[in-house]
Amino acid sequence: MLTYEPDESLAHRLDPRAKLAVQIGFAATALAHTTPRALIAFSALTAVAMATARLSLRRTLVSYRLALVVLALAPLLAGVTVGPPWFDRSAAVASGLASYRVLLILLVSAAYVRSTPVRDSRAAIQRTIPGKPGQLLGVGVGLVFRFLPVLRGDLRTIREAMAARLGTERGVVDRASTIGMLGVARAFDRADRLSLALRARCFAWNPTLPALAFSRVDYPVLGLAVILAVSAFY
Amino acid sequence: MATDQHSVELVDDDVVKPFARAAVLAALMGAAVFVGSIPIPFSPIPISLGVIVVYLAGLYLGPYWGAFSLLLYLTAGAVGLPIFAERASGLGVLVGNSAGYLWSYPTAALLIGAVVHRLSEDGDPADLSRPVLVVTLLAALTVIYLLGAAWLGYVLELSTVKAIEIGVVPFIPGDLIKIAAVVAIVEAERIAT
């Protein structure tokens, strides 16, 4: 599973905002170009991004397995035609190149995920998106992070309780609605207790954020992000 | 630490409650990818809870907080929580092959929430008649398919027909079952608005 791992790599020392900017720049230019030459350059850049985050290619590919199936299937399906010549090579190649750039975009974003703790991402969101929407998104990301294991436990309990009562023998609509209803009812119970706790603790629009500061290594990275974003138009 | 030296500006009570619900529902959407799915007969794709939560977000949180809840889900996944399908994460997923589906979720919740907001005085989806509810959910599903298949076709350079073959047809049986499940949830009236 792809997630943050503490390490001393160069990517771990970068400011999350610089890393986010590079990903956005890279995605913009990769979506705009699918020539083989551009893809070679993107591949090299992806390799650099992965190396700076010390990302394992094999493990990353495993965590994106669902996307890989679609990316591998798309060119094959694009080439198949009903009637002669049965397989259109040029359509398959065009789709293959397009699929490959999506894979590169995923790998670059994996480098960010491995090198950035959620706390830093939260601070980056709250500092970059202005006003109350930014505050709510930032705090919200923190809460999702906190409640994810709790709700996983809730859902697992619901499913085990259903299985113990032979719920697995019931119809699929019945099972899906029971899990959905109990899941949301429990989640809302938790949310209402959370909102009481937030009010009791003076939940404010202007909280104290973890420190974030650009260092000397961040400026070239930001420069790269700008170059990538501009190159999307050429 | 960047402490704000000005006076503390408290978040209003009428914001805290829906905000907490939206955040917890986004976490539930993420938790759904961990707990496995229900296999259905004659279909290779099992049912996951995910899209059910999208519908329920629109129905029970209303247009704005429902859409916010799903934007929060997308943001949390983008910054590295493993909550996208098959425990994937990262900003790349939000522009990758399944990006159209993901971005359609807030739009679908907005649409469903707007209908509930218009037809029910106190925002209770149980006030909607069954046909209206079914049509609303089908319209939301259409939005999800439309945006999902359109982006899939664009980003992988597939023709419209092929994008529908790969990105819509395999999911239809499961999605219809999910809509039936959501109708059952609303009619049971066990979730407090």
TrEMBL record, chain A:
Membrane topology summary: Multi-pass membrane protein
Any one cellular-component term (Gene Ontology): plasma membrane
Domain of life (superkingdom): Archaea
Record keywords: Cell membrane, Membrane, Transmembrane, Transmembrane helix
Transmembrane segment boundaries: 38-57, 64-87, 93-113
Main location as per UniProt: membrane
InterPro entries in alphabetical order: ABC/ECF_trnsptr_transmembrane, ECF_transporter_component
Subcellular localization: Membrane
Name of the protein described by the UniProt record: Biotin transport system permease protein
Organism: Natrinema hispanicum
UniProtKB/TrEMBL annotation, chain B:
Signal keyword on record: no
Main localization (coarse): membrane
Membrane topology of the entry: Multi-pass membrane protein
Domain of life of the organism encoding this protein: Archaea
Entries under InterPro entries matching the protein: BioY (IPR003784)
A single GO cellular-component term on record: plasma membrane
Gene3D superfamilies: 1.10.1760.20
Subcellular localization: Cell membrane
Record keywords, A-Z: Cell membrane, Membrane, Transmembrane, Transmembrane helix, Transport
Short name of one Pfam family: BioY
Transmembrane segments: 20-40, 47-65, 102-120, 132-156
Entry keyword Cell membrane: yes
MF-aspect GO terms: biotin transmembrane transporter activity
Record-stated family: Belongs to the BioY family.
Protein name per UniProt: Biotin transport system substrate-specific component
